[in-house]
Amino acid sequence: MFYFGADYYPEHWPEERWDEDARLMTQAGFNLVRLAEFAWSKMEPNDGEFEFDWLDRAISVLSSHGIQVILGTPTASPPPWLMAKQRDLFLVEQNGVRLTYGLRREYCPNNPLYYRHTEHIVTKMADHYKDNPAIIGWQIDNEFGDRCYCDICKTEFHKWLQMRYKTLDTLNEKWGTVFWSHIYTDWSQIPVPLSTIRSQNPGLGLDYRRFMSDTYRNYQKFQIDIIRHYCPDHLITHNLMGFSYNQLNYFDTTTDIDVVSWDNYPRTQWSMRSEVDPVKTALNADAMRGLKKKNFWVMEQQSGGGGWEYVAVPPKPGEIRLWTYQSIAHGADAVIYFRWRTSRVGTEQYWQGILEHHGIPGRRYEEVSHIGKELQRIGNKITGSQVKPRIAIMQSYDTRFAFQVQPNNPRFGYEKHIQDVYEGFYSNNIPVDIVSEKDPLSGYRVVIVPAMYILTEETASNLEKFAAEGGIVVFTPRTGVKDESNTVVNMKLPGLVARMAGIEIEEYISMPIDSDNHVRFGHPDLEDEFPTSIWADVIEPKEARVVAWHSQDFYAEKPAATINNFGNGKVIYLGIMGDKAYYNAIARWISGQARIKPLIELPQGVEASERWHGEKRLLFILNHHSTAKEITLNSSFIDLLSGKFLSGRISIGAFDVLILTDVEKPKT
Length: 668
Ligand code: GLA
Ligand code: ZN
Prior knowledge:
There is one protein chain. The protein is α/β, with parallel strands linked by helices and 668 residues long. Helix content is 30%, strand content 23%. It contains 17 helices and 26 strands. Strands 9, 10, 11, 12, 13, 14, 15, 16, 17, 18 and 19 form an 11-stranded mixed beta sheet that branches. An 8-stranded parallel beta barrel has the order 1-2-3-4-5-6-7-8, surrounded by 4 helices. Strand 14 and strand 15 form a beta hairpin. Helix 11 runs parallel beside helix 12 and helix 14 crosses helix 17. It is globular and about 75 Å long. Zinc ion binds next to helix 6. Zinc ion (ZN) binds next to helix 6.
């Protein structure tokens, strides 16, 4: 079944309204709602006093209309009576300031009292709802992630360090504490990285980020264990924040949950732009699918303008539908809108739901109902089908954390660099997976490894094996610079992968912010010149062949990119960073080397993506333009949505979507 519904807050509305809400939801094709994830003070109005009657009644109204429920544990928004117990319950920010009550997510994730109260509420909820047939699963907390720097966290950090390093001597050596006289003689001396005048020891900075990521994983696991005990058959998820969120190692965060879900907001008050960048959403979705190599849920799909302090730009007619199908095209098996009805109260008064404040169905309700009707018809044909790219882009949270400590060049951003590489493939309609440095790589033809700054021996040998067995590996600047402790390697770059790349970096040049360079490619399949910026690696080829040269400056005519035969495969090293045209050309060139073709040639801004059910595929075509576009189909298809036979030159409407099935068997 394809799950379709909304995040619903019955506690915000009079009980007499609930039945009408459920009726309208059913009419819109809903079969699932998320409830209760911020309702702690309604469920436990005073310490130890639990009230589930209201929620029972809401659930029974919904289930009498055939709607199932996913319950949120309410720990992201603690009640005032709890937070009044101890000042220590509040999170301390990096500047040393302790938060105060009044928003949400203000708790310290290591506080023992917070754990105790979490245990109370989660146990009571799980026990109360374990046999309720309307409940299918749980969302733990809401959008984990803010780092705490309090004394409780400091003590826990010391324990974490002792587990990792066993002895202080090892820690001192790994962190290089000899520098500036930081040699610790007692664990208790080790600080948490509160603000200092400038950046801290790189080892400390990286380890604290790892520790905080583990902290949330442990806190989540604490809740999961309770729920699994009472409700072994229920599904458990957590709602994540997409690719761009960089405070947690999401590969670890999602290890203990059953299904990844995430919150998809293409346009909010933080952009206020007319245009939306569909690349970002596509990357978010692919990265979320990559966390467990499984289809995901969207737990909060945008259904109106997203604003807190500002009244944000609303989705244009057709955009809610387009964004919904974009999620589906990249692997969603459930789409839950945020939120059912715009709240009249609280911080999010201007975060529009499907219904407006007044609750009378309007344009957005009509659009969602339209999607609901479509999914009732075709949802079963989509659910469970797989996105199956042959190319993977490798991302590492250790590398992200290390770049947070030292960004290396003011114009460089690791996430942005991955997005640039991704966009090259996206613009050519060549699907990719986003994988971790620990994932098995067999099954792919190409693995791109952008700026793998923290490079471990395991990762290097994983990549060597992949290339030796016939794969193509692609590296970019700032690869192999550091070891696991955030210490610079005692080797010529690219360090542990120099041998497989068949090169050494003679000089790594951090480029000035006010001047660029050019690169000239001279490979039979890529003869072109592109502007470059940010990094210039001057390459000394060993076994590798040179395919590109820098154009200007003191390193003009020196090698800028190489290709090396390694075992049955190839290793490409790109010692430059470029513009859109560069990444676009590189994506085509690399895919060509691996004999991978674009799914279809389409105008810019019209996206294609595939899902497979065994031998049968669904080809999604999404027009992100507010005007119709002419496209040329490369085969004959039936459109699942309209039932029409389509081939040759056709027009796709503004923000419209096609879900094409092949008339003949496609070539894989
Ligand atoms: C996040 C949260 C929601 C809501 C929305 C809109 O995604 O999970 O509870 O606050 O943002 O701001
Ligand atoms: Zn803390």
